[in-house]
Amino acid sequence: MLELKSVFDIQSEVVPWLLKGKLIPLNENGECTSLSRTDLQIVNVEKNGSVLFTWKGKKGTTCIGLHDLHKKQNKLLYTFDREVSLISCSVNMERTLLAVSILQFAGRGTFRPVSRCLTLLIEIHPVNNTKVLKAVNSNVKVQFLYQDSDSRLLPESHLLIISEDRYIEYIHIRMVIEEGYRVMVQNPDRLPREIVAEDFLWAQWDTEAQRLFYIVEKENNAVLMCIRFYPDRSNEMLISFSLGFSLTVTKLRLVNFGYNHFQEEEESSESLNLQVFSNHTGALSVCYSHPVQNNQEVIYSVILLHHGRRKTFRVSLEKSNCACISELTFLNIGYYVAVYVPGYFLHLINVQHPNLACHNLFLSGEDAKVKPWNHQRYMLSLSDSLLDCHLGKIYKAELNPVLLMMFMRSSKLGCHQLAVMHCAVLYLQNNSEVESQIIHWLCGLSASACSDLIQEFILGTLYRKAISETNAIAKLLPYSSLLNWKGEIPGITCTTENILQSVGKKVRHCKSFWEEVNRNVESLKNLESLHKALYTNSSLRRMQSKLFSEMKMDPRAIRHFRSVLENAKTILSKVDTWSPGQQVVPFFQEEDCQQMVLIGLMGEKLKEHLLKYVHSLGKKKIDVIVNNYVVNLLECIQTIVNTIWKHCGLNAHILCLSNREKVNSAEFVMFHMMTCVLQAVEGLSLPLPPGYHTIHIILGARCLPLHTLLHYIDLGVLHPTERFVTRLLEELDDSEINERFKFSIVARIPETIEQKICCLWDHPVSSSRVARNYVETLLKKLPTQQTSRISSVRELTPFESEFLPLTYLARILTEVEDQALNPFEEPENVDAKFVEEVALKQTLILLGLENN
Length: 852
Known about the structure:
Helices cover 36% and strands 24% of the residues.
């Protein structure tokens, strides 16, 4: 599922250009000959996408060329008039200066030259002078700095010289322009230089961010240092971080300083296999492998400086045909660090959310193959890319969505399912096809697993869309529904160590990456406040219940209630605006007071939360973020249901109660998935789109037998809504089966709904409701003094043959009827006589005497 995408192939990008320009040796017929892999080689990759390569030219020359990855153009930079062994090369940003290091070999019968390695600075615009920068016996690497053009204060170039004698020089080269076009080095014999690092055993050049990392040993402890360079010649130490282990290696290791095709093969155990990776969100990770103890286990660690943790992984290797274990390769693929050993395993470590092991993805065997990965000893990791030094290719490591989805569908382990879900939802960006595949896959899972993964899908989608607006809220919103995960991943164990300490100091122009790093580290110093800063919906339903109860007693609660509903209407209007005509399932076509209150309260609470922690964003910006967050929630649920609806091939005709006998299997799938979505959403205390409960219970009424349907209603899984009960009474006739069905539902509906629909059904239950409403309305309007007068009337009629509470109630109602307004549209159908008849009817039913 990890794929290497070729971004440069020297055979296809450079060879045709060489042949066309006749820049390679000619045969006896004067024709260009083909080049072998050793004759044409990549030597370095610069920040701006410039690939430097060298080849053997005509008449025993050595040439240096440049390929622009963006423009897909080649250029000859310089030609040596003899064949040289080029070990390092770098060109400045303006492509006016070239720095090279070459090996000098003594010929047969001659003395060894004074210096084994010669480092030169060459003027190439046009080709002018050459200056010797170094002449030493050890190998030397060269690397120009690439500063942003807008920030360059002086017409200077800056060059790093990295010597295997374990020191790094920083050279400042000032240029002048003569005759309007000749770029010359000013005072080449007096170039300002300074030593920026020495006595180190490991160094890495961060090509993209132009940072220098190196490791020195202090008091038997490896210390990681980081230097940032500025256009005004100055530099600043950003990091001095103790890695927690001592250096036992003897050989220097240089990372991202180009490739030396003439270096001798080194044993991996003699040099430190370590790389530093970073990304734009402020993630800074240090990855290193431990010395190999045996062929049955590999140990490696990842220090997550931005999370204050060190994670050490132990991998048990399965038996393989490989005679020995290759060195670990670390790759940076954005939100993940990949650890790869061909033939054994591939481990994708989530550096953005490393708290839970189930957000990592560990693969072994056939699943762990990375294509096209050839010979590992020729593969060189260049931070976010990979150089195949043998074939002359440069790759970008990317997650393949197709393979990821295939693995998701075939995986049986819960850890794999959670890892793939997290990866697909958070890091594959807004891909509707991937979303549809995930939802289809969820349909085939068990109810318990499906609910958990639906929660992951919803929260992950909301998180991704929210942080795309601003990364400042990344630590304030939930990205997962899991608080902890205690499962196991077969073949690997992990131990976690807290390393909360200062990573660096406050630096000049602290923006972007370093600002994020410092913010991340500072937030870790108080884990309790960090936990409080994470938004949760757990109190929403409690707030809803409190608001409804306060409305009965406090007039101020009514104003709050109206404000909440207005907020909800604003959010719902955006849903309608953003997705016109895309609804397959008829949501948002009724007013669901319960859900609208939840929607309004969620917006209100989330605004308060963000204003508390990121008030610097401003109230207007926070209002937009919050409204979009709740809108995205409703649209996400709508997308899930719509996708399943389309997948099942359903149409709006199934939302009919009169033909319940015509039910197909697709409706059962739809009902099952809507139940899973409901459980997932209610488990997170999130609101649902208005109309969700109506569609859900209509499907339940079609798919379930009556006793099961009533059981679901009693458990609170299905919610009878006003729209559902209205359709139930209007669409079904009064056959014996339907009457029993209606009665069972109406007996379970809330009182507020019962009051609205009681006039729609000509049945004793409805009549009873009408009568009770009538009595309640009249008695509420009855003045206190009139009560005593009616009581005296009752005392003056002792000759009546019956003395029942019902008789007394009927007389009171008869007395009041002429003075109180009848609340019903058809007052002639409801009076004291009607109440008395209904009461007698209900009494007979309760006594079982109705048929006598």
